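Aim 2 progress. For DUF427 domain-containing protein, the working sequence is reproduced below.
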Amino acid sequence: MKAIWNGQTIAESNDTVVVENNHYFPKESVKPEYLSDSQTHTTCPWKGLASYYSLTVDGKTNTDAAWYYPDPKSAASQIKDRVAFWKGVTITE
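Predicted structure tokens for this construct:
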């Protein structure tokens, strides 16, 4: 699977975990040069506290376009150390 935004592959892996129709990529498969930490956090009742990254590619920024659970609840342990995308990021094979 690939995560693509603004013409660049942000992440690529054959080992994604699908939860609620979102592909969670292993953290090591995500290209760190496109990520910047965000101050945004949200809470999911069964996954826990989510943190976000913004993506920057070729001078364009997609704010809070990636999220992850640094310490997911036990029901979501399979997404620990994984990153998912939204906000116009295309997920393709």
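The mean pLDDT is 98. This observation will guide construct design in the next reporting period.
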